[in-house]
């Protein structure tokens, strides 16, 4: 198994230790752990007690004051989002430990997306995604990943407002098989993810970013 759904207090502590390490390293704002969130620990293959990455899925509610996206970009103004609100999930707290960058482990997140999609039948995922990660998602998923507005420019990078049409992707069995079996070359991974570039987060504690994102 490449991942575990966080259910126990021990698994939650492992999630927090992995994620908050990155928050401290990069000065990221740590959004609250949503009570309704579903969290996954990404595990090191063949050493399944070792957590090497995290991701959190949160049911989308534009009125939620702790929404990781709505206060920074008005996704709720999009008609498709508004109509399908009960089948939309926010993606947050996505990270891969720095010791496992450039080694091809990021592909294992595809299995996490697949598991969540099979269990919860989402129509869309929405997120604010670091621009390099956005490019990688577009390469992998093509038109299933759509930019929804101008990039939000911060002090060190930019976040792209993204809608991920996961329902459309899951309907293409051949493409799903390809994604789950994909082996990304380390050089390709390295080109897209320099060691010190975050995936979904940036420094939200700076005055510039607080003005940009309304935090």
What would you say this structure looks like, in words?
- The protein is α+β, with helices and mostly antiparallel strands and 215 residues long.
- It has a single domain, classed as Gcn5-related N-acetyltransferase (GNAT) (Aminopeptidase), CATH 3.40.630.30.
- The protein is 34% helix and 24% strand.
- A hairpin with a 2-residue loop joins strand 2 (38-44) and strand 3.
- The longest helix has 18 residues, at 9-26.
- The protein is globular, with a radius of gyration of 16 Å.
- Mean pLDDT is 79; it is low at 184-215.
Coarse morphology: globular
Q: Helical residue percent?
A: 25-40%
From the N-terminal CA to the C-terminal CA, the straight-line distance is 37 Å
The largest sheet, given as strand count, sense and whether it forms a barrel, is: 8 strands, mixed
Counting DSSP E segments of at least 2 residues, the number of strands comes to 8
User: Roughly what fraction of the amino acids lie in strands?
Assistant: 15-25%
Organism: Peribacillus loiseleuriae
Protein name: N-acetyltransferase domain-containing protein
InterPro entries: Acyl_CoA_acyltransferase (IPR016181)
